Amino acid sequence: MDLSQNSCGMGMRPREAGMDGAPSPASPAGLSAYVVVSQLLGLTLLVTTGAWLGRYRGGVAWHSPLQFNVHPLCMVLGMVFLQGDALLVYRVFRHEAKRSTKVLHALLHGLALLIALVGIVAVFEFHQSKGIPDMYSLHSWCGMAAFVLYLLQWLLGCGFFLLPGASFSLRGRYKPQHVFFGLALFALSIAVCLLGITEMLLFNIRDSYSHFVSEGVLANTLGVLLVAFGLVVGYVLTRDDWKRPPLAEELALSMDFKTLTEGESPGGGSQ
Ligand code: HEM
Ligand code: HEM
């Protein structure tokens, strides 16, 4: 990855240089700046979550009254920060081989899923130990939907793009759905976190929230940071001229496929 050089990075431009000692290919300068900002925002939102839970909510521990706090920490880390970074890999590692980028994308989503699972188990166990009913709130309904659909998206992603069974054209037909629902799930995850933050503030500081107490301001700031992270990642992913240019060998493969099938190509190089 090269985040320092300037180039236009437009359209179907094949890779300019290999990894064999030749100068590394350039990334568009604007892309590099946006990626850096996204990572700064991501780290700030993790620190803000830690500061909120550590300073105002007593910290984090399993099998204790603090077990609930594992939930927001894991959900912000998994469903937002790691999910966001998994989405960015096709832009950041834009000149690496497609297969390695795909594996990294799948691994980061897998790690995000595992961490989110720990967060979900934490809140269910906590509710059970306190005798609190499950799944009564809008946050829990949308949260459960986001988690289950995220798991489904991951399984479908592995099935279509990683395992050898799916044909080239089947992958091409599934890809737009994968991209749309992936972006939608990322947006839903952030919305679910906002609902969770509001709910937690109303449980804990209902009487003082309207007096701008510092806990309320800090948690609201976390919400704004989550929105900002989502907007920056969303912008990077939807800029057409920042899309990953297919490598020369992927273009050749795509042309062979086009010739073989008389016109039907999934586009964007190998899937
Ligand atoms: C995408 C991220 C998130 C998902 C998928 C999610 C999912 C869930 C689910 C399924 C429950 C229901 C547990 C049960 O009924 O036993 C729940 C509860 C809860 N969550 Fe989250 N959550 C997320 C993020 C957050 C965040 C960031 C916070 C707070 C900062 C939060 C605060 C709460 C609270 C206070 C509850 C207990 C009340 C309730 O059941 O609504 N959640 N969450
Ligand atoms: C829950 C998990 C997943 C989510 C939310 C997700 C989401 C996304 C999104 C939003 C994109 C578009 C990114 C871009 O425009 O650069 C994308 C692309 C892609 N994803 Fe996933 N994905 C998930 C899991 C997987 C898995 C497990 C694989 C298996 C390898 C996979 C393979 C791909 C491929 C091949 C692309 C197309 C890249 C391209 O040609 O531009 N995804 N994914």
Give a short overview:
The protein is mainly α and 271 residues long. It has seven helices and no strands. α2 (70-92) runs parallel beside α6 (214-238) and α4 packs antiparallel against α5.
Q: Any idea of the CATH topology?
A: Four Helix Bundle (Hemerythrin (Met), subunit A)
The total of beta strands comes to: 0
Look at the helices and sheets and give the structural class: mainly alpha
Roughly how many Å apart are the termini? 21 Å
CATH C-level category: Mainly Alpha
The assigned CATH architecture is: Up-down Bundle
Helical residue percent band: 55-70%
How many domains, in number, for the residues?
A: 1
Order of SSEs, N→C?
HHHHHHH
Instruction: List the total number of helices.
Output: 7
Radius of gyration of CA atoms, rounded to a whole number: 21 Å
Q: How much beta, percentage-wise?
A: under 5%
Output mean pLDDT. Answer: 87
For the sheet with most strands, the description reads: none
Bound molecules: protoporphyrin IX containing FE
Could you list the spans in which at least 5 consecutive residues all have pLDDT below 50?
A: 1-23, 261-270
Gross morphology is globular
